[in-house]
Amino acid sequence: MGAAQPDTATEVEKGQTKVDAGLLPRDHYKYRLPRWRYMARQKLLPLVRWETPYLAYFQEHCRTPFLDSYFALTANLGTHTFFMIMLPVLFWFGYTTLGRGMVHILASGVFFSGFLKVLIALSLPRPLSPPLHRITMSGSAALEYGFPSTHSTNAVSVALYGILSLRSTPDVSTTLRFSLEALAWVYAISIVLGRLYCGMHGFFDVIVGICLGAVLAIVDWVSRDAVDAFVFSGSWQVPVVFIVVGLIMVRIHPEPADSCPCFDDGVAFAAVVMGCDVGHWHYAQSSWSWNEPVPATVPYSYEELGLTKSVLRVVAGVCVIFAWREFMKPTLHHFLPPLYRVIESIGLSLPRKHFTPASEYKKVPRLPDDTLFGLSELPALIHSFRRPRSDSVGPQSAADAYETLAYREKKRRESIGTSQSRSPSVPRDVAKYENEMGNGNVDVKALVVDSDDEKAEAEVFRKIERPRVRYDVEVVTKLVVYAGIAWFAVEGIPIFLEIIGLGIASHGFEAR
C-alpha cells in the first residue's frame, strides 16, 4: 500500500512546517487561491490593518480586570460546546419548536460563516498583536481566519430568534417578556463587544457577523412552518432529502488555503441538522412522543416530576451524549482506516487538502475534538474556569507572524524618502498604536531556508499555536458522531428517559 506508515501525528509532521490560517507568504495564496479571490484578498487586507490601531485605542481605554474576566467567560456562551450541551435541554423539557429553530440557525450560522471565511473572506487574518492584547480562554482561536466573526453571527441569530419567539407567544406576561428580551440583548451585546474588547476580531468582522446572523434568523423564522410541515409529514422523502442535502453541503464546502478548522465545524453542524430532522421525522410517528403543542414533543411536566427528577433528566441525557461520543469516535478511527486504504487503492477516494490519507499512517492517535470537548478534556476545562483567561501580546500563530512580517515590510517601504512616523489620516492619539504594529519579536531559526529573502518571507515565531495533523477518516467520523448526538437528543434520550423512570408515561400520564 505504498510507503511505510508512521504511527503518530508527530511522525506525520516530521520534516514539514505546519502553519496556521490567515497569513502565509503571499505566494502561498497566489498559487492556491483562484485569481479573483487572491486579488480581492489583497484589496481587503488594508482594511484589517487600518482598523487595528483604533481597536487597540478602544481596548486600552476600556480595560479593567473585571471586564477581562467577564468578556473571556461570556465568549464561552457562543462556542459549539455550550450550544451542543444546552440545545438538547430544550427538547427534553418540551420546547420543540424553539429547539428546532435554534438548531437550524446555529447550524446555518456556523456553516455559512465558515463558508465565507474560506470562499469570500479570502483568508483574512485577525487584527495584529501588538498593539492588541489577546484575551481568551481558547488556545485554538487564532487557527481560524478572522472574517467574519462566527461568535457574532451565532449570538445575534440566537438573540433575534429568541425575541421573535417571545413576541409570537401570547401567554407570556409583559414583565417576563421584557426581562427575557433584555437578557437576549445583554447576551448578544456581551459576545459581540467582547470579540472587539478581547482583541480577537475587528469592526468589519463583527459587523458582517451581525448582519449574517440577523439574515439567517429572519430566514429561518419565515420558513420554519414550511420546514416543520415537511419534516412531520411522515413521508419517506424526509430522511432522503436531509441526508442527501447534508452530504452535498459538506462536499461543496470550499477548501481553505491553510489548515483551518472552519471546515470541521461545517461538517459537524451539517451532521447535527441531519440527525435532528431525521430523528424528529421518526419520533413524531412513534407512540413515545406527544403531538401537542407540535409533533415530536418530548413528554414533560414539572408538576409531575419535580425538581430532582428534572435535574436527573439533564444529567442522564448529557451522560448519554458523552458516552456516545467517547465510544463511537475511537471505534470509527479504528475501523475506518483499513476501509479507506481499500477505497484509495482502487482510485475512488476524494481527498481534501490538509487531511492525511490513510495510506500514510497506520492508526489514528487519540485526538482532541475541535468542536466539542469530551470527558478526557474535562480536567483541562475545569482548570480553565479556575484560571479563566490568558492575556498575551505578540503573535500567537504563524498567521500573526506573517502579518507582522508583511506589515513590517510595508512600513519599511513607506519610510523610504519620508520622515513621517504615522499615516496622515490617523489621529495623533491613535498613532502610537499604529507604530507598535509589526514590532513582534521573531525567531529566524525556526525554519531552515536558503537565502536572506526567503528568511524574511518564511520566518515564524518561536511559540505559536500549530494546527494538529488531521486524518481523512475524521470527516466521516464527525458526520456519524454529530448526527448521532442530534438523534439521541431528539429521540434516543427521550425514549431512554421513559424507560429508566424519568419520563411522564412511566408516571401514569397518557401520551397526547
Q: Could you spell the SSE succession in H and E letters?
A: HHHHHHEHHHHHHEHEHHHEH
Q: What can be said about the biggest beta sheet? A: 2 strands, antiparallel
In which order are the strands of the major sheet placed?
Answer: 1-3
Distance between the termini: 58 Å
Uncertain ranges: 1-27, 441-464, 506-512
Quickly give the structural class: mainly alpha
Work out the helix count: 17
Radius of gyration: 25 Å
Tell me the total number of β-strands.
4
Shape: globular
Helix proportion range: 55-70%
Mean pLDDT figure = 75
Strand content: under 5%
Membrane topology: Multi-pass membrane protein
Region (Disordered): 410-429
Organism: Morchella conica CCBAS932
GO cellular component, one term: endoplasmic reticulum membrane
Model description:
It is globular and about 80 Å long. Helix content is 61%, strand content 2%. Mean pLDDT is 75; it is low at 1-27, 441-464 and 506-512. It has helices at 9-13, 26-32, 35-62, 65-74, 80-92, 96-119, 150-167, 174-197, 203-231, 237-252, 262-284, 302-345, 378-386, 398-415, 428-436, 452-458, 473-499, and strands spanning 133-136, 355-356, 390-393, 470-471. Helix 4 crosses helix 8 and helix 6 (96-119) runs antiparallel to helix 7. The protein has a domain at 26-336 and 468-507. The protein is mostly helical and 512 residues long. Strands 1-3 form a two-stranded antiparallel sheet. Strands 2-4 form a two-stranded parallel ribbon. It is a multi-pass membrane protein. This is PAP2 domain-containing protein. GO terms for molecular function: sphingosine-1-phosphate phosphatase activity. InterPro entries: PAP2/HPO, PAP2/HPO_sf. It is found in: Endoplasmic reticulum membrane.
